[in-house]
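In the previous chapter we treated chains in isolation. Here, by contrast, the input contains four separate entities that must be folded as one system, with a combined length of 432 residues.
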Amino acid sequence: MGLDPGRRSIGARRNPDSADAILDAAEAVLVEAGYSGFSIEAVARRARAGKPTIYRWWPSKAALLFDVYQRLKRVDHPDTGNLEDDLVGFLKSLFSHWRETSSGSIFRSLIAEAQSDATVAAVLAEYTKGRHAHTGQMVERAKARGEVAADVDATLVADLVASFAWTHLLTNRLDADETTLRRAVGYVLKGIEADGSVDPAAVRRGRRRVIGRVTG
Amino acid sequence: MGLDPGRRSIGARRNPDSADAILDAAEAVLVEAGYSGFSIEAVARRARAGKPTIYRWWPSKAALLFDVYQRLKRVDHPDTGNLEDDLVGFLKSLFSHWRETSSGSIFRSLIAEAQSDATVAAVLAEYTKGRHAHTGQMVERAKARGEVAADVDATLVADLVASFAWTHLLTNRLDADETTLRRAVGYVLKGIEADGSVDPAAVRRGRRRVIGRVTG
DNA sequence: TCGGCGAAACGAAACGGCCCGTTTCGTGCG
DNA sequence: CGCACGAAACGGGCCGTTTCGTTTCGCCGA
C-alpha cells in the first residue's frame, strides 16, 4: 500500500495490541466526532496512547484512516449469472455496508483527505483502480456468456456504476431504494430508450433540428 | 445561498473593492497553495487585509470558497437538438472548464469541505440539486421531441452523468478524451449492447424483461 | 457650497485554544 | 542492556475573536 511502510518491520520487538487499540480508537473517534474531529491527538487520547506511538506505526493521518477502512472487510459479491443483478446487488450491498458500518464515514474522509494530500490521492487512485477492475469482472463474465458485446469497455461501465455510488456517499444519499438502483443500472446496461417504444421518425426529426436557440 | 447573509446589508456604508481583492486573493491562494494551504490567514496576508474584515463578510471558509466558485461563470450549454450531443457537449465543456480555470480546484475543495461541515454539505446539496435539474432539462427536451420515453427519470440520468464528472474531478481524471465521454454517455442513453454486433438472442436471454413501459 | 463630525469599515496585532509533528524523559519488560 | 511505551512539552500554524488606532465616506449645519 505504501502508506505504512515500516510496520511490523524486522527490528520491531513487539506491538502487543496497542496497534489494535489505536485502530479501535480511531474508528470510534471518526464515528463519534466525524471527520472534522478526527485528529491524531484525539485518537491518542481515546486510546490512552502517546502520539509518538501512533506516528511510529503510521506515517500520516491518512495511513491510519486507510488501515481502519481496510479492517472492515467487505462481502464478496456472488455471481448471479446476470449482469444487471450482479451490479444491482453490488450497489445494494455497498450502500448498506456504507450505511450500516463506519465504512461510509471512513471512506468519505479518505476521499476528502485525498483532495488535500497528493500521496493519499495516489493511493486512493490505485485502490479504486483495483476496485474498478473487480467490478469490471462482472462485465467480463457477461461478455463470456455472450450477454454483452465483446468490445464493451468494462472499466468504463464499472466507472459509471462506481461514480454513482461515490457521489451518493459524498452527498448523503445512501438511502436510495432498490428500485432506483435497478433503474440506474438499467439505464447503463440498456439505455433509456431500451424498449423501443419511441417513434423513430420523431427521433430523426429531432436530430435534424440543430439550428437556432444557441445561448439557452 | 444562505452562506453570506449580511453581505451588503442596508447599513453597510461601503465595501470599496476590498471584497473583490479578498476574492482575488482567495482564488490565487487556492491555485498556488492548493486546498491544504488555503486558510483565512493566508488569504488575509495575500490580500493585505485583516482577518476580521474577511470574517465580517463571510461567515466561514466555505462561504468564501463558494463565492469564489460562483464568480467563475460557466458557459450555458446550447440546445443541439440531440440528447447525446447535448450531454457530451455538457461533459466536454464542464471538463475543460474545470481543467482550464481554477473552478476545478475550487469545486474539489468545496466537496472536501462538505465532508467535514454539515452546513456546507447542505448548501452543496441544494446547489447540485439545481444543477441536476438544469441538466435534466436536456432530457426533458428530448422527451418533448419524442426522442426518449416520457417516463424516463430525467433527474436520475442527470445524476449518472454528473456523478461521472464528479469522480473524474475528484480523482484527477479530467483528461478523458471526447471518445470516452461519448462512449460513457452512449452507455447511459443506449446501453452497453448498442455499440457492438452481438447476437440479439443472447442479449435477450441475459436481459430481464421490461413490462409496462408507458409511452408519452 | 463647503467644512467638519461621527459612524462604519478598515489593517494590524494579540488573545486563548487546538492541533501539528517532533523531542525528551521516566518506566516497564524481555 | 535495549527497546517500546505513556506522558509531557516543544515551536509552529491556524482557528475565530477582541482590541486598538486609522481611514473613508455620508450626513448636516454653517
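Residues 4-14, 194-216 of chain B have pLDDT under 50 and may be disordered. Residues 57 and 116 of chain B are 22 Å apart (CA to CA). Compare these points with the single-chain example from earlier in the chapter.
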